[in-house]
């Protein structure tokens, strides 16, 4: 018998019928002999309804009272799911974050979990009950209700799995697993049976929005096996674990891409200390997030400096850079918001030379010009013209033979 | 500086605009130098919405999970009111029943308050904050969320006022106080400045649904001055207190009536022990509530037995009584659902003879036949034909000169 923590998001519990379906899934897992803790989000639409009420009260909503308000969303779901389980003959018990106790710091609206007291949950499990826990919320040392911020329910599930030493943490979403790339772009994209935490982090941060980054980090840190599955169809999903010996052979696990970026280049900047700071500091001061930053070795005492921002921030960033460039004595400022970033991700590339050149070769063969390159230990990202997105992703998917199950799986 | 507990019901907080109005009222009271604890209900309609969700899950909804669900209603209101107060520059802090702690027994859906820990509330008051508390809910010793059942928010307010030794508990409703009788029947009905707890209990149970009986009992037991006021208009409302010397002169404080009753009479029942039980036991077994019961002294070894039930239960009760009457050897069973009960209420009648005869005289002068009479220490009720309701109430209102402020006020 193993202990499994399951998490169902807002879409999965978006109606009374869907809550009944979740109850059926939970009961099926229980019949297989597992002990179950189920973490749920607010029903889809409920958080927006509550935010609408709050915005009717005041313009700026944040702080302690917003958490009191929003935490009711999951509380409704836990009660309904526990009722549904009991109606189907499965003993169940619901807990708010405060009841569990999921102890957090006092940073309202973006609290971090400090500790979880699993005693009550363990007692109920020993009594044969399914335990239903409200995601996204906790309580601080003073007894104030807190919320964890975006994607907090995933984090709740992973943290509970860690505290309870669960055998697996299963995240149910509206996709049936993690794919080698977006199946809408590459129809023959393949669901991965397994992926490492590090690869998942790169995939997540690069635009494969299956799991919240924080939850993956947490699961990796505490070595909780994490599985992504579909709420709406059967299947084994994708298991996210640590790298194993047998996975060494795999080179590339997937291809991520991001269509929401724009590129800014400041050419002919004096090659001096402090230039990068003076440029990017102004951008950061305007609350614009910067993604890639590339600066090449300079020549003739000047250098070219390129970075990417979210497409929505392009005009604003361009204005800031223009005003700074003059003071820096730059030769030229150019920008383009018709670009995409494509990345290949895989722990295998650490120990294999030639991955980068294979990538560039595949793109060149299709006549795709690479505008920027940036690498980390387990990924290589390139920026290309927007029009090459589909062509580039498909060419790479073929070149790395991702439609074939990778060795070691 | 006095400490005041205010309570606003669902209609008073039924929209974002109304919550803003409540915030204005609270701030106005604070400007007068008072310390304030504010108890609120769920926004009107919210409890029904939640019940609708629960009924989508299962047919029979009760128990622990229903309380987890319903308690979110008040939690939304406390957050919104605290936000509104802070937006208007008034420091405020919200608490759920569990946070306060309002400790109850574990009778879910109809829990009773055992104890209130006022420490956190007192600390916030000392810090100059307005404390906003969720009505209707508490927490049991195990940390489970409980609800107090019908009218629970009034009870929360009175219990908090007791625990905090508040100077006054103010219940804001959609009427501006307690009237000598229903102003829709007697246009010159007068708002009472004061009424005793006992009178209020009789008025409440007789159909003047201004306050929940349980809250009045509680306030009386712990001697918390209770005031009924309107959320929507200015005014002093009605203060409910213990009888004082100066109130002795008042004879009658008000006239209550109930249009929802039906009368059943079993005539010629053998005048023997156990007859009442055998008749009413069967009615009670069918979950029919009995209001008045009148049995006169028998003659010729038989007696007549009359009682009243809610009009909705009339046919069912008549069937039960018919079936029993035969076995009891009764002569005849009659019933009538075209009746009303009219009651005069007042602590003054204790020490004054002649109140009853004055009542009967006033009704006789209008040609109104009295079908039943029942009395308690501070009220006299009569049952008359339904068509005489308005005429009877107006005649009594005139006879006892209720349009004049009573002496001692």
UniProtKB/TrEMBL annotation, chains A, B:
Cross-referenced SUPFAM superfamilies: ACT-like, Carbamate kinase-like
Enzyme class: transferase
A Pfam family annotated for this UniProt entry: ACT_9
Domain ACT: 264-345
UniProt-recorded name of the protein: Aspartokinase
Binding site for ATP: 7-10, 173-174, 179, 184, 209-210
Upper classification of the organism: Bacteria, Pseudomonadati, Pseudomonadota, Gammaproteobacteria, Chromatiales
GO MF term list: aspartate kinase activity; ATP binding
Residues holding substrate: 47, 74
InterPro entries, per the entry: AceGlu_kinase-like_sf, ACT-like_dom_sf, ACT_Aspartokinase, ACT_dom, AKii-LysC-BS, Asp/Glu/Uridylate_kinase, Asp_kin_monofn, Asp_kinase
Gene3D superfamilies: Acetylglutamate kinase-like, VC0802-like
Catalysed reaction equations from the record: L-aspartate + ATP = 4-phospho-L-aspartate + ADP
